[in-house]
């Protein structure tokens, strides 16, 4: 499932090993306002995974306080443990650009 997010980068995590590659987690912050009054209605925080093969080409856009537009996909998975199913969802970045 394709996803596009616009917001401000508020955190850039350190690289960590995941399987046979490395991944960094960044957090995108988005505020939303009432369209009629302009009043702040809420905020969202989206953790996004950036894999090593994409990190180098996006490095300039991904800095704390940068305003960005991220495109990528949602990755969902199911894990069963002790007969109970759990479901997890990740946002994986494909590209970033400054806005």
From the structure above, extract its key features:
about 100 residues; mainly beta; OB fold (Dihydrolipoamide Acetyltransferase, E2P); 5-stranded mixed β-barrel; 6 strands; about 70% strand
Short summary:
This protein is mainly beta. It is 7% helix and 70% strand.
CATH classification, class level: Mainly Beta
Number of domains: 1
Termini separation (Å)?
Answer: 23 Å
The count of β-strands is 6
**CATH fold name, please?**
OB fold (Dihydrolipoamide Acetyltransferase, E2P)
Task: Please give the count of helices.
Answer: 1
Quick one: biggest sheet? 5 strands, mixed, barrel
Percent helix, as a range, is under 10%
Rounded to the nearest angstrom, the radius of gyration is 15 Å
Main sheet strand line-up: 1-3-4-6-5
- The residue-averaged pLDDT reads 92
Shape: globular
The name of the CATH superfamily reads Nucleic acid-binding proteins
- Assign the structural class, choosing from mainly alpha, mainly beta, alpha/beta, alpha+beta, or little secondary structure: mainly beta
Order of helices and strands: EEEEHEE
Oligomer: single chain
Note down, in words, how this protein is organized.
The chain is mainly β. The protein has one domain: Nucleic acid-binding proteins (OB fold (Dihydrolipoamide Acetyltransferase, E2P), Beta Barrel), CATH 2.40.50.140. Helices cover 7% and strands 70% of the residues. It is built from one helix and six strands; from the N terminus they run ββββαββ. The protein has one helix at residues 52-58; strands spanning 2-12, 16-18, 21-33, 40-51, 67-81, 84-98. A hairpin with a 2-residue loop joins β5 and β6. The longest helix is centred in the middle third of the chain and has 7 residues, at 52-58. The protein is globular, with a radius of gyration of 15 Å. 13% of the residues are buried. The model has no long low-confidence stretch (mean pLDDT 92).
């Amino acid at each position: 499932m394709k996803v596009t997010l616009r917001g401000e980068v508020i955190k850039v995590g350190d690289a960590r090993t995941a399987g046979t590659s490395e991944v960094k987690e960044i957090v995108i912050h988005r505020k939303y306002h009432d369209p009629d009054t302009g009043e702040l209605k809420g905020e969202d925080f989206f953790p996004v995974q950036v894999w090593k093969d994409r990190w180098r080409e996006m490095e300039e856009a991904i800095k704390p306080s940068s305003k960005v537009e991220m495109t990528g996909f949602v990755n969902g998975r199911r894990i069963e443990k002790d007969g109970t199913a759990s479901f997890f969802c990740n946002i994986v970045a494909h590209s970033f650009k400054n806005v």
